[in-house]
Amino acid sequence: MTYEAVIGLEVHVQIKTRSKMFTRVAAGYGQPENTLTDPTVLALPGALPVMNKAAVDAIIKAGLMLGCEIAPVCKWDRKNYFYPDSPKNYQISQYDQPICIGGTVEIELPGPARNIQGEHKGIPLTRIHLEEDVGKLNHGVGGSLIDYNRAGTPLMEIVSDPALRSADEAYAYLQSIRTSIVYAGISDCDMEKGQLRCDANISIRPVGDTKLGTKVELKNLNSIAFVRDGIAHEIARQIAVTKAGGVIVQETRDYDGIAGTSQSLRSKEMAHDYRYFPDPDLMPVKVDADWKARLAAELPERPFDKQRRFMAAEADGGYALPYTLASVLIPDRELSDWFEQAAKLAGAGRAQAVGNWIVNDLLRELAASATVLATAKVTPAALAELVGLVAAGTLLQHSAKEVFADMVATGEAPAAIVARKGLAAAPTDTAELETWCRDSIAANAKAVAEFKAGKESALNAFKGAIMKAAKGKANPKAVDETLRRLLAAL
Amino acid sequence: MTTPLHFQTVTELSAALAAGSLTSVALTEAFIARTHAVEARVQAFNSYDTDDALAQARASDARRAAGQALGPLDGIPVGMKDVIAVRDQPLTASSKILAGFVSPYDATVTTKLRAAGVVLWGRLNMDEFAMGSSTENSSTKVTANPYDLSRIPGGSSGGSAAALAAGEAPATLGSDTGGSIRQPAALCGVVGLKPTYGLISRYGLIAYASSLDQIGPFGRTVEDVALLLQAIAGHDERDSTSFKAVIPDYRAALTAPRTHPWRIGIPKEYFGDGLDPEVSAAVQGAIAYYKSLGAEIREVSLPHTPYALAAYYIIATAEASSNLARFDGVRYGHRSAEADNLHALYFKSRAEGFGSEVKRRIILGTYVLSSGYYDAYYGRAQKVRTLIREDFIKAYGEVDVILTPTAPTPAFKRGEKSDDPLAMYLADIYTIGVNLAGLPAISIPCGFTTAGLPIGLQLIGQPFAEADLLAAAYAYDATHDWAKRTPNL
Amino acid sequence: MQIDIDHLAMLSRLALTPEEKVKFSAQLGDIIGYIEKLKEVNVDGVEPTAHATPIFNVLQADDPRPGLSVEDALRNAPVQRDHMVVVPRVVE
């Protein structure tokens, strides 16, 4: 019997705000222990919550980005459970009236090869709701130490339908969410800093069945690679247990990404009864059309829409980029915007060259100099100019590489570097060029015959000697034209 | 014979301070002396800090000497129910679970009182976490009714009412979730106001039932209460449930000319079985007085009154079960000596830290919220709450204020109801509807029993119409001298 | 009315003595019996009231202001070490 997996993901994303979700003390990462607290964060007697508008804005943006319906009215509930990292021993969350309902996450599955685009699919979302993060427990000898700096950081939980069917789909789903959220400036989604966290609900069933199997919750999928590996591991485990005649028990398992193993966890609340009820300390939120429109106007283009646009023909307003380039540029909003600026300045027919420079050279140079794009000295206008010089034949590709290295290092304009270093291709109208060409034609009777017979590539046979004579500085376009003129006259 | 300082009204003391015939230090010393003299019998305070009070008094006198007095309350001592945070002072809610807790911050009302120049004077006993009607549920001490030391002062703000009645403070603050200001005010012969929900910030008030709790003042007279209310009312950005209401001049409103005679509603449901005959007679006397002033007295109906107590106990305990989860012995408060693992830390710290009534209400609240019961209890109670509020709104279509007894009986004997929670809950029968409907209400003295126990009447106003409510209360209070009576201590 | 006092005590994190369990069960039975009277009320079509005076969109600016010093934050901690609150080791 063959089995298929049914997977639902719960993705927690920390929202990048300056202050916390329900109070105005600063939010932050990497600060000394317990320096980001106040009476509300610590749940001191008498302290009360007031909601951060930026956090509500951020989740509405996330909802709009992922095609959710934004609830006209939503409320806030208390989820009651005791745990030492939760100062109030209840978490403010949303139970039956989340702020974002439904939605779809577009995913791209791996293609048959790296340079071939895979299938796209829409994964339906159940909801997105807003809640607050907990403190951090440091387990040591003789006790656990609690740092409340993280407590009360705004968190949104993005819940998918049980619509994912494989570890690859789950991986692609998480990548897609991450790209969209980072695009919208809602979070940096750094998994190492815990800004993006993922739990998976996994079950298996015989292919063809519609009934869901017993689900296992897999926790601590704390890197994007662990999400794929952990889910694959769990699917394999469930299939192995089932095939051996065993029964899957409903439980929570902890995935150890280093060891590639998982183990059952004891339940957090001894019996799950969260006793949700509306938080009487908070008032409901109404989101009207104006509020939504204001935020919608701030949203970036969706990443996959941008990818389709970049790959579209120039006649359709695109840049005719091959998938290999688009798939590198798109996940980084800043980089893809940078590309687009440069491509526009470079003009028609030159976008691919711009893309090549970015993907092959710029990224390597930035990495080598440990620089980020935002502080790079090279500008889109300078790259567009460089591409123009090469296209016009005034700069040879191998010289252009040298010019580009200087542009990255100093920010100097390409034309200035070319002039300073004397890298310009030789002038085009000299008698000298014509002499070199005549000499080369005279020396290659075989190639002349081939060219005359219609073999275009035979032209290249003359070029080596010409370039040698020109010490590499001949304008290739002029060489090409001169050769054709002389050959035609023969 | 002149009234001793400790029995004078805030209005009188304020005038003396303004006239320069009295200093805040002298006044504060008078209250310290009085407290030393009677506190052993009254047992109203959980803690007080005479050095801190005198330092505040000296600062007040210095301001006044520099011509920078902050207003009518500058230099006046005000006692706080031990449920309102005062920076660097103990805050216990009369619970063992907060024994030794020192607040690192000020409640918003505390900040406002400081801004008014008030001398913050002591933290007053109460039923643990404001759960009770007699102050017997305190873990710290048993507060006596100054009019009969064998009787309870009411609750939960029993210390606030008793300290005022006993002359240990000229004004105090309390909190009212189901009658916790009005009932002890009635039982101790003072004035107590529960403002409209949302008029006073709850930031820094230890929560019992968040959707019902409200801080309010106690005073000897309606005028004193108006002065206190002026200082603490107003929107607070730290409390999401705080309302952006326009704050009028409450004292000026007391004597403002009226365009029409008072229309006073008498809800028939509040005068049924269980109302003590002496209380009933005193309240009828007050109704007759209003009539003599030209007021129009109308019978009104609040038909859902019989369900108020049940709805209250569901909503209040549900919220409390969650609000009190933070008292776990982790970050502050009592931690059991046997807390050698996390389970024991929670279970034993809380078992040792909370008293019986608190445990009972936590368990009840947990029950009504537990899986499968939400709709039957909490959901239904919130709907009944809507009906109770609608009853009041309908009544206000024909009357300006509603008049009722504050409590069904005068102060009862200590221990009389301790073992019967339901009987104790019935002490709040006339006050609870007001909290559910979020309305303002005031209790003012309206007589004494033949045994010398105070009786109070309750006036219930319209939302955010405290000015009207106080004016209606003042019409009676200013022409009666019940406040001049003082207990023999 | 049957009350599972052990379950409620567990959810409430309260260690109850056997005597307390007997007493609370009986008292809660009475109280729950009393609050059952709400079932007499017809609430069809009635909206629940969470707050007597509902307000909407109470939001504050994302503009940090100072919080507590570490000393104030830990001032009341029963046990602390390295600027953190200590609890018995939490076993997952």
Offer a concise description of the structure.
The complex is a heterotrimer of chains A (490), B (489) and C (92). By secondary structure, chain B is of the alpha/beta class.
Itemize the secondary structure elements and their pairings.
The complex is a heterotrimer of chains A (490), B (489) and C (92).
Chain A (H helix, E strand, L loop, with lengths): L2 E12 L36 E2 H13 L3 E2 L2 E2 L2 E4 L9 E4 L6 E2 L2 E5 L11 E13 L3 E5 L2 E5 L6 E7 L6 H17 L12 E11 L9 E4 L4 H20 L7 E6 L4 E5 L11 E2 L6 E2 L2 H8 L6 H9 L11 H7 L3 H14 L4 H18 L11 H13 L4 H14 L3 H8 L9 H13 L1 H8 L7 H10 L6 H14 L1
Parallel strand pairs in A: 14-15
Antiparallel strand pairs in A: 1-12, 1-13, 3-7, 4-18, 5-6, 5-17, 7-9, 8-9, 9-12, 10-11, 13-14, 15-16
Helix pairs in contact in A: 2-3, 6-8, 7-8, 7-9, 8-10, 9-10, 12-14, 12-15
Chain B lengths: L9 H10 L4 H19 L2 E3 L2 H16 L11 E5 L26 H8 L3 E6 L33 H8 L5 E6 L5 H7 L2 E4 L19 E6 L2 H11 L17 H5 L8 E5 L9 H16 L3 E5 L7 H16 L18 H12 L2 H14 L5 H21 L5 E5 L15 H5 L6 H6 L3 E8 L5 E7 L5 H12 L12
Parallel strand pairs in B: 2-3, 2-4, 7-8, 7-9
Antiparallel strand pairs in B: 1-3, 4-6, 5-6, 5-10, 9-11, 10-11
Chain C lengths: L4 H8 L5 H18 L23 E2 L9 H5 L5 E2 L2 E4 L5
Antiparallel strand pairs in C: 2-3
